[in-house]
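Researcher: We're reviewing a set of sequences before deciding which ones to prioritize for further study. For each one, I'd like a predicted 3D structure that I can look through quickly. This is N-acetylglucosaminyl deacetylase, LmbE family. If possible, include the structure in token form so it fits the rest of the review sheet.
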Amino acid sequence: MTSPQSRRPAEFVERALCVLAHPDDIDFGSAGTVATWTADGTEVTYLIVTDGDAGGLDDTPRDRMGPLRRAEQEAAAKAVGVTDVRFLGYPDGRLELTLDLRRDISRVIRQVRPQRVLTSSPERVWDRIGASHPDHMTVGESTLRAVYPDARNPFAFSELLADEGLEAWTVSEVWLTASPRTDHVVDVTDVVELKFAALKSHVSQVGHMDDLEQFVTDWMRQNGRRLGLPQGRLGEAFHVVHTA
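Model: Here's the predicted structure for N-acetylglucosaminyl deacetylase, LmbE family, in token form for your review sheet.
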């Protein structure tokens, strides 16, 4: 008998929701994968929890950084075929696991009704600490709690149904990025230029990186080699959790 976690992810889903902490999180880890989904006809929505106003390396005034990074994320999304980009506006660098955050993510799950949700892993990666920003882990855990049990339970956050008319929705699978237990790889070799276009939209964050393409290519080549892609192919890696 096949265990739930040994099942392969669905070949195609109609709708996918990507829930990440900051503008550019999706593009470093998953923009190539998103490009393959949109090419296949999947409707993809981005939900970015903060505006990334604590990011950046120059002297851009803090009150301008949030709007700038929103615009950069919208441009990056268009590069891989995504036009529905939403922001929750929580403070960058100060996310906590709260009922309000769970409710706000649950609301968007019920609005979008995705079969697949992509988010960051709530587990810390000890050998690559940069992958485990506290905001990333908080968003990952909050999203998993929104997927189960909140979004599917009509009696959880009952105001979503009573006041907003949002029916309960069950997500079938969750893809976790930056996980210490990756078990699935997407070959993004043929769409890598779209990924680079998305990444380069985040000028405030990567404009200083002369070696951006080489750095990301080396990283994806390691993913491909580790998870069984043919020699030289580029991969984005995930831990897929079946939730229905």
